[in-house]
């Protein structure tokens, strides 16, 4: 597998929970940013096997803000530097209120065959509170418009445990999402990230974190409802109809190489080197040589930790035969008490989280990691 991620760090407004790298003040720089992306693409294409790219993901930020001519310039550069395999999965993230017939017409001129829509919830009051610029009706219309335009591979993002969100809200969110004829659902439990407005509100006592028991019930409702709808869970927060899992995101959990382009984008060589482009649009645009970045070469312990952390998030789990004898022994010693409590289980030589274990996965994963 060879994958490309392209980061578009522009947003029209800031959602109060978000800590992704993006700016609301620099849309006038979009054209020069895309030129810089094209330069980086050509300079770094050999980071992966450029003659065989299986997945391409345009994320952000808000890539659906890109004007048609800039999106088309990105794809021209993709075609001159890389070869997408005939069955390549090509995804773009979109805000529901950016999806209309004109936008979809532009998309149809590109190889994009999958749209990931930032829904978060169908409750307009909560959407407004968290700073989203769309409403529930716009999401429903957006999904319908995508299907009318012939795009059938559609993913929605939902967030649970949002402030003010009740079990009834959550049931409605999951039911409505699944009723729209989508193929993929990503459902994350809200996390309060330092530096966000939401985190500050929590610290100031303006809002309260959702009670743990309610969060647990929300998660179990999600597991049961998606299963009844024929969706398969393939990662802690990701569900799809059979065969429709995100091949791009799976590459992050399977440790295959990917080239990350753009300010703040990350790359991995599939061996032991991670690279992070610095999150600085101006420095990115102005770079005359390679764009500013940091490289991190993982040592054996870090490689083991990454392996455990990424594989345990998947339903398949950790393939024990891929660990060295020492690492396997270490891992199983720590895992045994969890196996006895039925929070972890071993099947077909893979160590995986059970339904009960998923809920405390962060604790289990951090225990299994070497310090
Ligand atoms: S639109 Fe997406 S990237 Fe932009 S602020 Fe909101 S959540 Fe963050």
Provide an overview of this structure.
The chain has 14 helices and 15 strands. The protein has helices spanning 30-44, 68-81, 101-108, 124-129, 136-148, 167-179, 197-203, 212-228, 247-254, 281-286, 300-312, 325-340, 355-358, 361-368, and strands at residues 3-8, 53-60, 84-94, 114-120, 154-160, 184-189, 232-235, 238-240, 258-261, 266-268, 273-277, 293-297, 318-319, 344-347, 350-353. Strands 7-8-6-5-4-3-2-1-9 form a 9-stranded mixed sheet, with helices on both faces. The longest helix is centred in the middle third of the chain and has 17 residues, at 212-228. It is globular, with a radius of gyration of 21 Å. Bound molecules: iron/sulfur cluster. The site of iron/sulfur cluster has 10 residues, from loops.
Task: Outline the fold blueprint.
Layout (H helix, E strand, L loop, with lengths): L2 E6 L21 H15 L8 E8 L7 H14 L2 E11 L6 H8 L5 E7 L3 H6 L6 H13 L5 E7 L6 H13 L4 E6 L7 H7 L8 H17 L3 E4 L2 E3 L6 H8 L3 E4 L4 E3 L4 E5 L3 H6 L6 E5 L2 H13 L5 E2 L5 H16 L3 E4 L2 E4 L1 H4 L2 H8 L3
Parallel strand pairs: 1-2, 1-9, 2-3, 3-4, 4-5, 5-6
Antiparallel strand pairs: 6-8, 7-8, 10-11, 11-12, 13-15, 14-15
Helix pairs in contact: 1-2, 6-8, 11-14
Bound molecules: iron/sulfur cluster (SF4).
The site of iron/sulfur cluster has 10 residues, from loops.
By CATH's scheme, which homologous superfamily of the largest domain applies?
A: Aldolase class I
Q: And the CATH topology of the largest domain?
A: TIM Barrel
Give the CATH architecture of the largest domain: Alpha-Beta Barrel
Distance between the termini: 30 Å
> Which ranges are low-confidence, i.e. pLDDT below 50, for 5 or more consecutive residues?
none
Q: Calculate the mean pLDDT score and round it.
A: 96
The amount of helix comes to 25-40%
The H/E string reads EHEHEHEHHEHEHHEEHEEEHEHEHEEHH
Estimate the strand proportion. Answer: 15-25%
Counting H and I runs of at least 4 residues, what is the number of helices? 14
Choose one word for the global shape: globular
Bound molecules: iron/sulfur cluster
